[in-house]
Amino acid sequence: MSLRLLFACLTFSAFAAEPGFVRSEFIFEKNPVPSCHATTIVEARDGSFVAAWFAGEAEGKPDVSIWTARLVDGKWSAPVKVAEGTQPDGKRFPCWNPVLFQPKDGPLQLYYKIGPNPIEWWGMLRLSDDNGKTWGAARRLPDGILGPIKNKPVQLNDGTILSGSSAEGLKVGPAWQIHFERSRDNGVIWEKISVEQPATGPASIQPSILFLRDGGLMSVGRTKNAKFFSTVSNDQGSTWSKVDLIDLPNPNSGTDAVTLKDGRHLLIYNHTAKGRSPLNLAISKDGIVWEAALVLEDEPKAEFSYPAIIQSADGLVHVTYTWKRKLVKHTVIDPAKLVARPMEGMAWPKAPAGQAENGGLERLKYNNPGLVVDLGVGLWAWPLPMDLNGDGKYELVVNCPDKPSNGVYVFSSGADTAKNALPVFKPGVRTSKGMQNVELSWDADGKPRVLSPGVEYPDFAKTGLEFGKKLPLPTNLHPNMVRANMWKYADYDGDGKTDVIVGVGDWTDYGWDNGYNEKGEWIKGPLRGFVYVVRNEGTNDQPKYQPPVRVRAGGKELEVFGWPSPNFADFDGDGDLDLICGEFLDGFTYFENIGARAEPKYAAGRRLTLPASVTTGARAAAWKASLEAKKLPGSPRPLTMDLEMITPVAFDWNKDGKLDLIVGDEDGRVAYIENTGKFTEDHTPLFLPPKYFKQQADEMKFGALATPVGFDWDGDGDIDIVSGNTAGHVGFFENLSGRGLAAPKFAAPKLLQADGKTLRIMGGRNGSIQGPAEAKWGYTTQTVADWDGDGLPDLLVNSILGKVVWYRNIGTRKEPKLAAAQPIEVEWEGTQPALAWGWLKPQGKALLTQWRTTPVAVDWNKDGLTDLVMLDQEGYLAFFERAKVEGKLVLKAPRRAFCDESGKPLQLSKGPAGKSGRRKLCVTDWDGDGQADFLLNSSSANFLRQVGTKDGLWLFKDEGPLVKQNIEGHDVSPTTVDFDGDGIPDFLGGAEDGKFYYLRNPRSAK
Question: In terms of pTM, does the model score above 0.90?
Answer without folding.
Answer: no
